[in-house]
Amino acid sequence: MPHPLSDSPQHRIFAMLDVDGDGAITRTEYLARVDRVAAAMDRDAHHPVVTAARAAHEAVFADMDADHDGRVTFEEYRAWVGHETFERSCRPALGSLFDIADADADGRLNRDEFIRLRTAAGNAGPDAAAAFDALDTDGSGLIDRDTYLAGIKTFVTAGSSPMAAAYGAGRPVLEARP
Ligand SMILES: [Ca+2]
Ligand SMILES: [Ca+2]
Ligand SMILES: [Ca+2]
C-alpha cells in the first residue's frame, strides 16, 4: 500500500537523499552528495567551495539527526524540515552546492551547469531540465542563486514551485526512482 505521504515534497526529498533506499539518510550518504556534485562539476575535492560545502552539509546533518545516532529517519526528517530550518541550515548547504556548480562565480548557472548539478544531487535529467525551463521565466538561459534557493524553499515549504519539476512532482515516486 502506498504511504499516505508518499507524494509529499518531504517524501520526495527524503527518497532522493536516502540513496540506497533503506529508510534512513546516513551521514555518509548525505556527505557523499557533496562529492558527487564536486565530481560532476569537475571541482577539485580540496577546492574552497567544496570544503565549504562539506562543512555546511555536516552542519545540516547534525541538525537533522535529532537523536544523534548517525541516521536520519523519515520521522526525524519530517519533524525537522520547514521554514526555520530551511533558513538556518538548508539555505547555506544548497547555496554551497550552487557555488560548486557556478564555475565563473557570478552567482548564476547556465542550463548545462544547472542540469549537471541537479542530476548529481539526485534528480532525473529530464526533470532537472524541466525545472530549469520553469525557473528561467525571462528566458535568459541563466538562473541566479536567489531564484534557485527560493524555488527549492517554496517546494519544501509549500509543495508547489517551478522547482517541483526537478523532483518529478506529478509522477509517482516509484517511477521517479527506478
Ligand atoms: Ca540510506
Ligand atoms: Ca537519528
Ligand atoms: Ca555562473
Average pLDDT, to the nearest integer? 90
> Helix segment count?
9
Shape: globular
Task: Summarize the main sheet.
Answer: 2 strands, antiparallel
Task: Please report the distance between the alpha carbons of the first and last residues.
Answer: 18 Å
| Low-pLDDT runs | 174-178
Q: What structural class do the secondary elements suggest?
A: mainly alpha
Per CATH, the superfamily is EF-hand
CATH topology: Recoverin, domain 1
Global Rg: 15 Å
CATH architecture annotation name: Orthogonal Bundle
Bound molecules: calcium ion
How many strand units?
Answer: 4
Descriptive report:
The chain has 178 residues and is mainly α. It has a single domain (9-170), classed as Recoverin, domain 1 (Orthogonal Bundle). 60% of the residues lie in helices and 7% in strands. It has nine helices and four strands, in the order αβααβααβααβαα. It has helices at 9-17, 27-40, 48-64, 74-80, 83-101, 111-121, 125-135, 145-158, 173-176; strands spanning 24-26, 71-73, 108-110, 142-144. The longest helix is centred in the middle third of the chain and has 19 residues, at 83-101. The structure holds calcium ion (3 copies). Residues 18, 20, 22, 24-26, 29 line the site of one calcium ion (CA).
